[in-house]
Amino acid sequence: MAQEIGRISRPAADQYQGRRKLMLVPLVYGPPGDEPDGVAALVKYWDQMQTQVTSLEAALGGLRHLYHESVPAGGQEGLDYLERMDQRSHQFVKAKCESGATLEATEDAGLLAEIMDLQRCLMLPLISGKVAQRLHDWFTESNRSRYEHISKQIDSTLGENEAGLLLVSERHQIQFPADIEVFYVSPPALDEFRRWLQSWIAQQQMPPEEAPEEAPEETPEEAPEETPEEAPEEPAAEDAPEEPAAEE
């Protein structure tokens, strides 16, 4: 069972001597648009997360391997891929690599592309329920294979008495090998960002109340004022096309 770092005391290094260790870091992306409160909560989370990871590294004897969801290549190729995908993750992973850790290939490129295409298909309004169900089943199976692949990648690269770090979304379904001790990094700012995101989503789903009430009030007031002024202009506009018609 994963232990939550930030809610427990720092582990002693000799407690896990000889075992494989994995820090599990929730991958939190930026809020939609320019939301000052959301951006502030996100920055706070990344600051606290990195502080906890640094402390945990010292306790576990250093960091040797890095894994990041959606990255199908390791080394410099993986860093280049990550730079195009997410700048915040790239800066964090690059700093760890410069300190001696190795970025490993985490995803299977074919499976990842398949899942992304299926996600797009499932977002379309489908007419056939049978087709929708088959797409959903296909997506579920591909997703299961994807998480199995990530687990195998970690198992095959994380050696005895080594520590690794995985950045992955909180809704992942990865089953880790039983001999790997998992440490879930959960700084207080993570809950703060979750609360902000839930509040933001609720506001977006709330139907507008003031705008519809104001719109009908303005239109009746403007309409009577404009009609008397435009009334004399309309016959002139109608007379103009009739003159060329009569000449023809």
- Residues in helix, %: 55-70%
The total beta strand count reads 6
**Cα end-to-end separation:** 90 Å
Rg over C-alpha atoms, rounded to the nearest angstrom: 29 Å
Mean pLDDT: 83
Q: Could you give the order of the helices and strands?
A: EEHEHHEHHEEHHH
What summary fits the major beta sheet?
6 strands, parallel
Strand content: 5-15%
Numbering strands along the chain, what is their spatial order in the largest sheet?
Answer: 1-6-2-5-3-4
Low-pLDDT residue intervals, each spanning 5 or more residues: 210-248
The number of distinct helices, counting runs of at least 4 residues, comes to 8
- Derived structural class: alpha/beta
What does the model show?
By secondary structure, the chain is of the alpha/beta class. Helix content is 58%, strand content 11%. It is built from eight helices and six strands. A six-stranded parallel sheet has the order 1-6-2-5-3-4. The N and C termini lie far apart (90 Å).
Key attributes of the depicted protein:
248 residues, alpha/beta, disordered C terminus, six-stranded parallel β-sheet, 8 helices, single chain, 6 strands
